[in-house]
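Technical note accompanying the year-one report. For the benefit of new consortium partners, we illustrate the data format agreed upon in the data management plan: each record pairs a sequence with a structure-token string. No post-processing was applied to the example shown here.
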Amino acid sequence: MLWMGRERFEELVGDALDRIPSELTRLMDNVVIFVEDEPPVGGPELLGLYEGTPLTERGEWYAGVLPDRITVYRNPTLRMCASEDEVVREVAVTVAHEIGHHFGIPDERLHELGYG
């Protein structure tokens, strides 16, 4: 497994966020982004996870709720990458993929667009 400290990995996640066009980030609403070492035990080997209510499904009822949560998982990413350049690329794809879910884009479409 490739080794990369948590601080450097978090920096890559921040860099990936900075590459999302500002036209999109301005539309993001009530969402936070976390880095965790591992996905939930017993589940699939995820690189990222979106939990929440996509913008496309929010209605008048949507008020006073906890923020949506995007989590990027460090160790699964490092296990699948052979170099830091691969980690940079995979983190960028994962962040864009999970933000896509925040905008209501399904997995199938994100895969067609090249985001995982």
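Partners are asked to follow this layout when depositing records. The first strand starts at residue 31 and ends at 36.
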